[in-house]
What we know:
Blueprint: E1 2-3, H1 7-26, H2 31-52, E2 53-54, H3 57-76, H4 79-82, H5 89-95, H6 101-127
Antiparallel strand pairs: 1-2
Helix pairs in contact: 1-2, 2-3, 2-6, 3-6
Amino acid sequence: MKLQFNKTYSVLTLLLLVTEACIAIFLKTGFIRHTVGDYLVVILMYCFFKSFIKGNHFKIAIIVLAISFIVEFLQLANILKALNLQNSHIAKLILGSTFHVSDLIAYTLGIPSVLILEYQINTFKNND
């Protein structure tokens, strides 16, 4: 893995960040807020890492999944209370505040989606 700026992944990161912000601002409940948002956040994180790191897609995807799982399990451990951040809106937005197994499922589904898309894009590039 080496550091290298990638414009395409940077644009995707910004688009996904705007999408996530819109979901957070305009949708307070429901499937899109609680499930699609979690599905997209791992894709956002993957694109963010790929914006600056040139390396194995699979390794980066696994790192993103591990980070997502760690953050989710920190919610189970009530990390916001331990850090005295339970009243911080920004901390709740970034780290989340409640543990849900469905979030782990959404993260787990997001990563194969990224890897499938990467595989298809690379296959298409190699056939040209």
